[in-house]
């Protein structure tokens, strides 16, 4: 099994990624969820994560992380609603958060796993950067970080920048320069699959706890998108999770990528050296294409095969 910590800012598509991860515990050994401010404030992302994980019957630790980006003011996203989970209300868990914060939780598991721990980061990279700053030896202890963030071309927050990298560009810079093996699942692939109605219907038809919560989240996403744009919803964070589980889902190219931390137009841009002008070795394995059919088939099968309770 792959020992994994998921760093999340739950968040609707984060919630779908968490649900998919919890349906994959035959392959993943999820050590902890760590939370960060992003889509909404950290009190809400932590609460949403704890409620979701416990509602699905898992007692995996949930450790609270950064309240705000390293240097910038927190910028949240209105598209996930005021609580982060739209109009979905989960039972409030009475369980406590893990006694260590996100940074020390990551370090604890990284140290005890002797270089085998993988991280999946689907929010701003604040916790990971703080972990590197607080525990510099961490860079030798992490096997790989898969990041939902950035884009080789274009943005969704600004014309050049993806939301997670925009929110905490200073943290992104530290992580991208860390030397830890990085996989970037950016908008180049996460914007391609758009939730088709037949996938929604098939998930809805599954009679289990995972599908019931996912359907409520999809309902919110579908209504929201009808109101604000004409495109069906994207599941950015679930695609990053799937990339760990499905080796043939995504095509990659290696690039040297730097982060713009200021920039009047380009704050948070993941700048790839396409023409090798810097002569630097690549530091990122970047997603360039995705097989959408494979992704949807995987998603439907996950819900169909899930524990029927
Ligand atoms: C990313 O931004 C957030 O709103 C989503 O949860 C995802 O992680 C997409 O740009
Ligand atoms: Ca997210």
TrEMBL record:
Transmembrane segments: none annotated. GO terms for molecular function: purine nucleosidase activity; uridine nucleosidase activity. CDD domains: nuc_hydro_IU_UC_XIUA. It holds the Pfam family IU_nuc_hydro. InterPro entries: I/U_nuclsd_hydro_CS, Inosine/uridine_hydrolase_dom, IUNH, Ribo_hydro-like. One of its GO terms (biological process) is purine nucleoside catabolic process. The keyword Hydrolase applies. Residues 4-297 form the Inosine/uridine-preferring nucleoside hydrolase domain. This is Inosine-uridine nucleoside N-ribohydrolase.
């Amino acid at each position: 099994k792959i020992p994994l910590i998921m760093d999340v800012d739950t968040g609707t598509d984060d919630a779908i990624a968490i649900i998919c991860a919890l349906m994959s515990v035959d392959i993943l050994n999820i050590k902890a969820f760590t939370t960060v401010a992003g889509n909404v404030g950290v009190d809400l992302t932590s609460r949403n994560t704890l409620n979701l994980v416990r509602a699905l019957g898992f007692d995996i630790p949930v450790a609270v992380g950064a309240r705000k980006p390293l240097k910038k003011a927190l910028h949240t996203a209105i598209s996930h609603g005021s609580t982060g989970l739209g109009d979905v209300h989960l039972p409030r868990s009475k369980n406590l958060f893990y006694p260590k914060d996100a940074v020390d939780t990551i370090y604890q598991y990284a140290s005890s796993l002797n270089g085998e721990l993988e991280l999946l980061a689907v929010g701003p990279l604040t916790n990971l950067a703080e972990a590197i700053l607080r525990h510099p030896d961490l860079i030798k202890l992490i096997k790989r970080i898969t990041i939902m963030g950035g884009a080789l071309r274009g943005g969704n927050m600004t014309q050049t920048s993806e939301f997670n990298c925009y929110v905490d560009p200073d943290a992104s810079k530290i992580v991208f320069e860390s030397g830890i093996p990085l996989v970037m699942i950016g908008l180049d692939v996460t914007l391609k699959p758009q939730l088709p109605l037949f996938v929604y219907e098939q998930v809805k038809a599954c009679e289990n706890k995972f599908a019931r919560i996912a359907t409520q989240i999809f309902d919110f996403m579908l209504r929201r998108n009808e109101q604000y744009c004409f495109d069906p919803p994207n599941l950015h964070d679930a695609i990053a999770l799937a990339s760990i589980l499905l080796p043939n889902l995504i095509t990659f190219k290696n690039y040297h990528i730097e982060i713009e931390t200021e920039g009047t137009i380009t704050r948070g841009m993941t700048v790839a050296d396409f023409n090798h002008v810097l002569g630097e070795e690549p530091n990122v394995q970047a997603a360039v294409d995705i097989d959408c059919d494979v992704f949807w088939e995987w998603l439907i099968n996950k819900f169909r095969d899930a524990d029927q309770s």
